[in-house]
Amino acid sequence: MMIPRSAFRWAARSLLAAILAVTFTSGSAAEAINQLPPGAKLPQPTRTPPPLYPEAMRQSGLEGRVTVDFNITTDGLVDDPIIVRSNNPWFERPAIDAILQWRFRPASVGGKKIAVRASQELIFAISPGSDGGQGLWEINRNGGKEAGALPADFQWHKAPEAINTAYPVYPFEALQANQQGVVRAGFIINPYGRVVAVKILEEPSPELGRAVLATIDTWAFTPPTKKDGTPCFAGVSMKFNFQTARNRGDVPFNDEMRQILKQLKEKPDTIYSPDQLDAVPKPISRRPPVYPTALLAGGTAGSAKVEFFVDHNGDVQLPRIVSCSAPEFGYAAVQAIATWRYTVPRKGGKPVTARATIPLEFAVRPPAPAEKK
Question: Which of 70, 131, 204, 206 suits 242 as a labelling partner, its CA being 20 to 30 A distant?
Fold first, then answer.
């Protein structure tokens, strides 16, 4: 059954959204997942505040689509929100934060209130004419002035545009060693918008280069095209700036990460294991890792064990590779786990920082079948 589309449109935007000229719209109407009995009254929204547009995403001109499943309780509150689909993990937290603030007149049957589970897509869109889209990442032709020397199939006219994106994860060991600098990656995008080969062209350290490789594997693009509109291959390059100073780089190193590093150094006993908490945190969003492009030719199974911290907001911070069957699997696991979110870890009812370790398995990857339009 469908909750009416109009029920999930909001009439006003936050002050920040208005200043940034950013619009927020609902996508497909929320859909009740569990079957309602005949004669049931659907829940009706009474408060639907919009999500805040992540500033870094606005600057980069990136838009987002996030689908959230959630319970609407008999009190009209939202409970147990789970991310089921999104094109960019950096839109997931504001989507969850907004949904948790929504309120409803609960569903009912014969006058008795009942709980239902619903699904809602949130769309983050930059208004035409706004100042969004300055670009954190620039897509450049590989070879610069020598681009004309590329094969004819790589002579794109319209650049591919990123539609699925993610930030690189600053490697834990690189942060501890204060490794910084620019990583430049060259990669091939096929006529279907998929990355099929990646190569590091410049790196201050192998750790930072591998972090970028794992990031590019998660991206997807609109197909590059020739002048006549025919999809083609594209050889492009991008730069990622790893810096530990505030507001200097474009790879996240936030205050929560700084605080945990300080705790590890000065007060390690204030970081708790799951069995020391009031309850084990429940996962809200756990994006699966992407099989590394560099290992596709072999297609073998792999594994990685990763340690990570869950901060006072329930966000995963500072994942690090404990062990892995190949470095590519380790960095792919870290890239995914860095986007995960849990319920807030608590001890004695107070939010705390928790530490956990998790193993991930990568199944054998068969050769990809020929793609069809």
Answer: 131
